[in-house]
Amino acid sequence: MSLLVVGSVALDSVETPFGKKEEVLGGSATFFSTAASFFNPVQLVAVVGEDFPEAHVQFLKARGIGLDGLTREKGRTFRWKGKYGFQLNEAQTLDTQLNVFQDFAPKLPEAYKGAPYVFLGNIHPELQSQVLDQVKGPKLVAADTMNFWINGTREALLKTLKRVNLLFVNDAEIRQLSGEHNIVKAARAVHTMGPSRVVVKRGEYGALLFEKDHIFACPAFPLEDVFDPTGAGDTFAGGFMGTLATAGRFEPDVIRRAMVMGSVMASFAVERFSLDRLRDLTQPEIHKRFSEFKRLTHFEDLAALQA
After folding, report:
1. What is the pLDDT of residue 199?
2. Helices in the chain by DSSP H: which ranges?
3. Does the N-terminal or the C-terminal CB of the chain have fewer CB atoms within 10 Å?
C-alpha cells in the first residue's frame, strides 16, 4: 500500500572526524523515502531548485520512488552544512540556506491524496497541517518534529499533533514538548496531545516505542565503523513506516518488527556519507542484519534457565 512522504530534499555539506563531503544528496524526505522504498512503494512531495543535479533525480527514480510531487522551482536548492565531533551524537550546524524551501507550499498530486500511510517530515507544523487537509482518510499519519518548531511554533504544532497517530522525536525533544524530564511520563503526556504511539529516537542507544499499554525498547546495532550519522533518524522512520505499510496492520508484533527494521536501516545509513551505503544495499544484507538483531536481543525465559 502506498506511503506518502512530505519533507525536504537537500544538498548537504558534512564534516566528521572520518572525512568531509561537499553538497551531497540529503534531506529528511530523501533519507526516509530511500529507506522505505526497500519495503513499499513511496510517493514523495518536496521542492528543489534549478541547480539540483539530475543524477540525484535518477537515483530516486531508480529506487521506484514516485516523483510526481517533486517540483523544481527557480532558485537554489535547500542547503545544510554541519560538523560532527568524535561522539557523533549531535551535529553542529554551520550554515542553513533555505532557498526554494523557504516558500515551499506542498501541493499533493491527485493520485497521492488517497495514500493510506502518510509521513510528515520535519517541516513547519502549518505545512504539515496543509498536507493533512489534502489527504483522504489515511489509515496512519506519522510525523516528525524538532526543537525549533517546539519552541517557535508550539500552538501550530499542538494543532497538528491532534491529527497525528504516531510521533517520532528524540529524547531531548520529547522532554521539551512535554515539560517532563522522565521519558515515560513525557510519552504519556504526548499521548494526551493526540498521538497514540510515540517513538523516541536515542541515537547510539537505540529507540523506545510507547503505546497506551505497551513499551518496547530496541537497541542500536553495534557497529565498528560509523562515518556519518546525518539522516539516521529519517532512515529509521523510513524502515519503520515501510515495514508497517507492507504489513498493513498495527498489532504489537508488527510494531516491534518495524522498530527493529528501522534500526537495521539506520545502521546501514551511518556506515558511509550521505546515502552512499543505501545505494548498493541489497535485500539479503537487510535480512542478514535483521537476523543478527534477533540473535543480539534473544534471551531464554527464566523458567527454561531454572529447569
Report:
1. 97
2. 28-36, 54-62, 125-134, 147-152, 154-161, 171-178, 183-191, 232-247, 252-269, 276-279, 283-297, 302-306
3. C
